[in-house]
Specification:
With 116 residues, this protein is of the alpha+beta class. It has two domains: 34 residues; 73 residues, SH3 type barrels, CATH 2.30.30. A five-stranded antiparallel β-sheet has the order 4-3-2-1-5. Helices cover 41% and strands 24% of the residues. The longest helix has 31 residues.
Length: 116
């Protein structure tokens, strides 16, 4: 009986360290695959950012660019993205201009004409 105790402890440790986290990840992946809807922004496991165009039982069609649609297995989708506000480049230019005074902007060298 004493010889079985270390074996039982090893099996329990294996279950807690390996099997439970794996089952949790599988449940999370299945939930992500079931929540795919057209229009959602997603990231695949390979790092591809795309928009869901259509969803079938086992596959999902992803739009990579306008007119470019590819078919992927649902399991390839790692997660959906939460819409973030768009970054306006005009606001960035205004912020940069506000940091420099008008005199500094006028005195700044023009990168195209001041090259040797």
């Amino acid at each position: 009986m004493e010889a079985l105790l270390p074996l039982v402890v090893l099996v329990l440790a294996f279950y807690l360290v390996v099997l439970r986290p794996m089952q949790r990840r599988q449940r999370e992946q299945a939930a992500v695959a079931e929540q795919l809807v057209p229009g959602a922004r997603v990231i695949t496991h390979s790092g591809l950012h795309a928009e869901v165009v259509a969803v079938s039982d086992a596959t999902v069609d992803l739009a990579l660019a306008p007119g470019v649609v590819t078919t992927w297995a649902k399991g390839a989708v790692a997660r959906t993205l939460i819409d973030e506000p768009a970054d306006d480049s005009a606001d960035l230019d205004e912020d940069l201009g506000a940091d420099l005074g008008a005199d500094e902007l006028a005195a700044a060298p023009d990168s195209d004409t001041d090259r040797p």
